[in-house]
Design goal:
The structure is a single chain. The protein is α/β, with parallel strands linked by helices and about 400 residues long. It folds into three domains: about 15-85, Winged helix-like DNA-binding domain superfamily/Winged helix DNA-binding domain (Arc Repressor Mutant, subunit A, Orthogonal Bundle), CATH 1.10.10; about 95-200, Rossmann fold (3-Layer(aba) Sandwich), CATH 3.40.50; about 205-335 and about 365-400, Response regulator (Rossmann fold, 3-Layer(aba) Sandwich), CATH 3.40.50. Helix content is about 35%, strand content about 15%. It contains 14 helices and 14 strands. A six-stranded parallel sheet has the order 4-3-5-6-7-13, with helices on one face. A six-stranded mixed sheet has the order 9-8-10-11-12-14. A hairpin with a 3-residue loop joins strand 1 (about 75-80) and strand 2. Helix 2 crosses helix 4 (about 60-75), helix 8 (about 205-215) runs parallel beside helix 9 and helix 8 (about 205-215) packs antiparallel against helix 14 (about 390-400). The radius of gyration is 27 Å and the shape is elongated. The two termini are about 50 Å apart. The relative contact order is 0.11. Residues about 1-20, about 90-95 and about 375-400 have low confidence and may be disordered.
């Protein structure tokens, strides 16, 4: 039995007819018919309403809406609530850049306000919204005011410090409204708390691995991470990478300690926590503070302590935008905000709400402030596979995701 092409066939029997011959669903055939009409210039500016399209192509409103949604996701059309559907990239069509990119930000006193300005420098028509997270630390639908939704080109959500408190998440009502209006959204400064979404986040996995590796190179036999007592993907990534580095280089890993429980007695027993080893001397203990709050608590204890905590080697992994004057002898892992701005700008130029979400992780720079005392012993095979970005860190990132 010979097969008969399904759906309309172009006059020249070109690719359109061949494509439709393989389409088994009505909305797919309808989508290709509308695409041909747009490409041939029949719809040069604004498309007719869905009822008119339904009468012309013999389809119901649901089928028309599905076909238009697919073409909008591809970038061929632009749909605006209350205005209609337009052909994209035409001089007479409304351009998405004419609308405003709205910013929702979590408030944090430790974050330099200039950091947010730096990150959004590549965006056009930026407007900060005064509303932010609710009492539970999440973004509700009310954070995106009704009067601003129609003019939104995109919604950017800025997380100032995921290392001190729980990473906020978008409540289902906000996510549903963004999808309904086909407004792309991006989280900057952290990854999604519970769901996979578009994000430009710091690579805390790389930070944890490289800081731990450096302290071990400086002679530390035990690594103690200090973090606030809360769970986020960022803290988990840093802790997993620190542990991976200690396993690789044969150091002792004790697990995280909260700033409230940081004490010399705990530190002095670190070396004996694994394999019956003798306790390590204070100068052989490396303390990695994950977050500015943890760092300030540890520094305060080190200054007032007289039992050896002051001789421990300390490192800081801070959140992007946090400005802290580096203390003498404190290794830091810092972030270049221009890299975040570049990634955000790239996203804004290609953002489409219907595409699969993309997570982008930006690495930082290690600033060592301890002298190397010994070379880390690694096998030749392991040394040959090492690169500027540690393979262990990459593996940890994938595991955390």
């Amino acid at each position: 039995m010979s097969s008969v092409p399904m759906g309309p066939v172009s006059d020249d029997q070109g690719n359109a007819g061949q494509t439709n011959g393989r389409l088994s669903y009505k909305f797919q055939r309808l989508r290709e018919s509308i695409r041909n009409a747009v490409l041939q210039g029949e719809f040069a500016d604004r498309l007719p309403g869905e009822r008119t399209l339904g009468k012309r192509f013999g389809a119901n409103a649901k089928t028309i809406n599905k076909a238009l949604s697919d073409l909008t996701a591809e970038g061929l059309l632009i749909r605006q609530i209350g205005r209609g559907t337009f052909v994209a990239k035409r001089e007479s069509a409304p351009q998405a850049d004419d609308r405003v990119t709205h910013i929702l930000a979590t408030a944090d006193a430790t974050c330099d306000p200039v950091a947010l300005t730096d990150v959004t420098s590549g965006l056009q028509n930026v407007e900060m919204l005064s509303a932010g997270v609710d009492s539970h630390g999440n973004w509700p639908l009310s954070a995106w005011p009704v009067g601003r939704r129609r003019d939104s080109k995109a919604l950017v959500l800025w997380v100032s410090d995921p290392l001190t408190r729980q990473t906020p998440r978008m409540l289902p009502s906000l996510t549903a409204e963004l999808h309904r209006r086909q407004v792309p959204f991006l989280i900057v400064g952290a990854s999604g708390a519970t769901e996979r979404v578009n994000c430009v986040a710091p690579d805390y996995s790389d930070a944890g691995y490289r800081v731990a590796e450096h302290l071990i190179q400086c002679g530390c036999k035990a690594i103690v991470p200090v973090a606030v007592e809360q769970t986020s993907r960022e803290i988990e990534a840093a802790l997993a990478a620190i542990q991976a580095a200690t396993v690789r280089f044969g150091a002792t890993y004790t697990g995280p300690v909260t700033p409230e429980h940081f004490a010399t007695e705990v530190m002095m027993r670190v070396g004996a926590a694994a394999n019956g080893r003798a306790p390590a001397a204070p100068e052989q203990i490396g303390v990695i503070c994950i977050g500015l709050a943890a760092f300030k608590a540890v520094q305060s204890r080190r200054i007032t302590d007289t039992a050896g905590a002051g001789s421990m080697k300390t490192a800081l992994i801070a959140a992007p935008g946090q400005r802290v004057s580096a203390a003498p002898g404190v290794t830091t892992y810092e972030w270049d905000m221009t890299q975040f701005a570049d990634r955000v700008c790239e996203w804004s130029q290609t953002a489409k709400s219907a595409l699969q979400p993309k997570e982008t992780y930006v690495p930082g720079t290690l600033f060592p402030r301890h002298g190397l005392t010994r070379r880390v012993e690694t096998s030749n095979a392991a040394e040959a596979t090492r690169s500027a970005t540690p393979p262990g860190a990459r593996t940890v990132v994938e595991a955390v995701r």
